[in-house]
Amino acid sequence: MTDADETAPPIRVALVDDQELVRAGFRMVLDAQPDIEVVGEAGDGVQALELLRGTRADVVLMDVRMPRMDGIEATRNVVAGSGPKVVILTTFDLDEYAFAAIKAGAGGFLLKDAGPAQLIEAIKSVHSGDAVVAPSTTKRLLDRFAVHLPDAEAKANGALESLTDREGEVLRLVARGMSNAEIAARLYVSEATVKTHMGRILMKLGLRDRVQAVVFAYETGLVKSGQGDNSV
């Protein structure tokens, strides 16, 4: 461990879920990590916004279905206020809510039955500026709800035409859940080159992060539900 690692402040996490036992389970896992600190809990979106007005957090673990204000509206408010990053907690039964929350500004989503290691990795990834897009989960989520996505011609509006062929290729691979390392290996380029392409893609399309890029690719028909990972 480097000196920088030893002196870096812990990642401050807020837990938002209407089930106290769920929050307790997450807190138990996170409190055991020396580089993560749970700074508060809330049982619904209204409490979450109140908590975040008086408590600085880096990452919020946000449930979706809650009383008074659900996770979608809460996420929209948190992101609009340039607040902390949001990771949506979901189950397969609530995938449509997770999709809406991601579009509202969440940095990623995580299944509630994820293991401790996945939870910790998701928090660290989002905090470092990456998006939590698990390939298998992303594919299942978007495949299941592709019927809700608008027609490609209705959404494209010339946006895709601003991308170079290589940028379009990178975006398709990102939408299939491939990591930068996997994309670099597929295209025989460096990871730094992939990151450069991603930065240009986000800038040209006016997108915030990798998660929004995945949603955009499906919405515009660049990648369609059911396409295999080996298709390019």
From TrEMBL:
Domain Response regulatory: 12-127
Keyword Phosphoprotein tagged: yes
Domain spans labelled HTH luxR-type: 156-221
Keyword rRNA processing: no
Family matches, as InterPro entries: CheY-like_superfamily (IPR011006), NreC/VraR/RcsB-like_REC (IPR058245), Sig_transdc_resp-reg_C-effctor (IPR016032), Sig_transdc_resp-reg_receiver (IPR001789), Tscrpt_reg_LuxR_C (IPR000792), WalR-like (IPR039420)
Record keywords, A-Z: DNA-binding, Phosphoprotein, Transcription, Transcription regulation
Alphabetical GO biological process terms: phosphorelay signal transduction system; regulation of DNA-templated transcription
Domain of life: Bacteria
Transmembrane segments: none
PTM-bearing positions, type 4-aspartylphosphate: D63
GO MF terms held by the record: DNA binding
UniProt name for this protein: Response regulator transcription factor
Record organism: Actinomadura decatromicini
